[in-house]
Design a protein that fits this description.
Length: 151
């Protein structure tokens, strides 16, 4: 007498099963996306820590034999071209990802915050960290501060 009730029941089971499977796949996809984002964040932190260690290693190489903890541009160029520390500095700076054709000596003027011609180890490390780890907003703040200091 109700022939359509069997058809309705079969369609209901099919759509219900489809809905439940869709929910399960959604939960799995969301969880996988969350885990992937966590992994990407931890990987970025690991790479940032590695790059910061490289920056500190370069600073240690540059300032290792300097008694007054100040490096002039000439002294920096001599250190970079020296046979004992130059190749090691070049090896370590490869991992920092400086722009093409850019050397550590090019950074001297940019990192010399007080513009006295001498670069301290602190100026070097903090300046390099700012260059490597800044987001666009932070970079804009630094540029506007530098512009304001010129006035």
């Amino acid at each position: 007498e109700h022939w359509w009730s069997a058809l309705f029941f079969v369609l209901y089971v099919i759509f219900s099963t489809f809905g439940v499977l869709n929910l399960i796949i959604g939960v799995i996809t969301e969880r996988t996306s969350f885990v992937q984002a966590e992994y990407a964040y931890s990987e970025k932190k690991r790479q940032d820590n590695r790059r910061m260690r490289q920056i500190e290693e370069v600073a240690d190489l540059i300032f290792s034999q300097d008694d007054d903890n100040l490096i002039t541009l000439k002294e920096l160029q001599d250190i970079i071209t020296s046979a004992d520390r130059g190749p090691e500095i070049a090896r370590v700076t490869d991992g920092i990802n400086l722009p093409v054709g850019y050397s550590v000596a090019d950074l001297h003027v940019m990192l010399d915050k007080d513009a006295n011609g001498n670069l301290t180890k602190r100026e070097f490390v903090i300046g390099m960290a700012r260059l490597v780890f800044c987001c666009d907003f932070q970079r804009d703040c630094l540029l506007q501060t530098a512009t304001a200091e010129i006035k």
